[in-house]
């Protein structure tokens, strides 16, 4: 009888598979790259405005230069007070982003925390949280924001609070759903068997596994927040004049659209670029961060 | 030798959908330091639930209304959760079936092994060092590099090794292995079993193997607990169990094993009928409806009775079987 020998070797670990970093995959997709570019343009313009890198002061009026066509002096023309439209668009974008970032920052932290806790503990905490989000969802976003501002008063900080309240329930819902299945996940049970505390399980094992969903949601929520903020200032509930704000600029330019269309188109275009850019970026991030998606 | 784990009359009750059903119905056993014990039984016989109840980690809808669990001199029942947590992982650890989903996909392997230590108060640097040593000991090549890998970069066998490392890195006194090899192919199974056996040698670590694979049992353990419908029906040294099973259920299980030497392709023996569903367990001996040896006495609940070197919950001694 011949001897049969089996060489049993340990399976060697494949040289770390060539999975590209998430930002590479983001930029490789068409919508991701376009979204990143558009968002980047708006962000740069806003940062420049904050740093004072604007062609003219956005508030100073030039009575002699009222309603001028776009020219080399005023790249996007001037409004009825002779203020530079480009500078006002940049400053308006900065103001809009400031409100949106604060609002979405608050909404994502508060909402995700509530959602994770509701999903993890279930029971009456979960029921109360879900019914509350139902109540919030029953109101149109703008109506809810208007109500909050009516209660809190005007000012950019109050606008941010109002927008945050509008978008918190979405983060609650979005964080809760995956936690419902994660709390039963084998590696969470393994953590319990190893004596991990609940805060450790939540912070180190549950949260990282919902982080990609949260990040995508933040991008999308930013675009909605910009829209809501612009709508509020369009209705005259944003920053009080003369501080520049995109919605307010659109609102004031309504009656000037025939004589000076640039005063309407420029701020509207900035809103569109920001919203479309953030949406595309969100879509791109969703694909780039999804570990099951291999292109 | 002193008992490391002593379980007395443990019961687990499931209270879902209105009614409540007893799934583990009074289980008592003990495990000594360094001992290897198997808990065998069909799916649904209550093996895993028994051990989860011992660890104090029953899922929602499950509770343990009675039973004492003494571990290493501590009474675990009624112990505050924070104290229990210190024991879990550090003194008693559990690994289980599915290596594919038992590791956190977002965390590096090395960090996961180290976390068993940091969760019990070991400093980060020392934990990382010990984690890498442990990875090497469970047979993961080049641990300095592989510790930085994520679970999806590992094969099933490698993940199971990493999982075992998370359980063993703290040097527990008791390791509960819940079918640790069912999801792996045969050659890897052997390696994993050899690995745990190897680690047991030289330490005083006791192991409890939860399995339905009597083949695994034969080569690994010194004593076997056979569970049927939420009870232990036989508690026997492994040699006695295979040579002369004292409970008709055990005898039936052994008869249903295929033998490599069988030339004729005769159908495998089987036990007629099916185990009772929880909640509809027959009066008296729960195996009675399927038992070929049943007598009138079996309408009474049989306790575990000494039979030769074993304990058996059967009124009819093997010598009187027909």
In short:
The complex is a heterodimer of chains A (about 300) and B (about 325). Chain A is mainly α.
Helix content of chain B: 25-40%
Structural class by secondary-structure content of chain A: mainly alpha
- How can the largest sheet of chain A be summarized? none
CATH superfamily of chain A: MetI-like
End-to-end separation of chain B in angstroms reads: 38 Å
The number of helical segments of chain B is 10
| Major β-sheet strand ordering of chain B | 7-8-9-3-10-11-13-12
**What is the molecular shape of chain B?**
globular
SSE topology string of chain B? EEEHEEEHEHHHHEHEHEEHHEE
Strand count of chain A: 0
Low-confidence stretches of chain A are: 1-17
- The CATH topology of chain A: MetI-like fold
The percentage of residues in β strands of chain A lies in under 5%
What do you see in this structure?
The complex is a heterodimer of chains A (295) and B (322). With 295 residues, chain A is an all-alpha fold. Helix content of chain A is 68%, strand content 0%. Chain A is elongated, with a radius of gyration of 25 Å. The N terminus of chain A is likely disordered. With 322 residues, chain B is α/β, with parallel strands linked by helices. In chain B, the strands form two sheets. Chain B has an eight-stranded mixed beta sheet, with helices on both faces. In chain B, strands 1, 2, 4, 5 and 6 form a five-stranded antiparallel beta sheet that branches. In chain B, strand 1 and strand 2 form a beta hairpin. Chain B starts with a strand and ends in a 10-residue tail after the last strand. The relative contact order of chain B is 0.14. The model of chain B has no long low-confidence stretch (mean pLDDT 87). At the A-B interface, helix 7 and helix 8 of A face helix 2, strand 7 and helix 6 of B.
Quick tags:
heterodimer, A: 295 residues, mainly alpha, MetI-like fold, 10 helices, 68% helix, B: 322 residues, alpha/beta, 8-stranded mixed beta sheet, 5-stranded antiparallel beta sheet, 13 strands
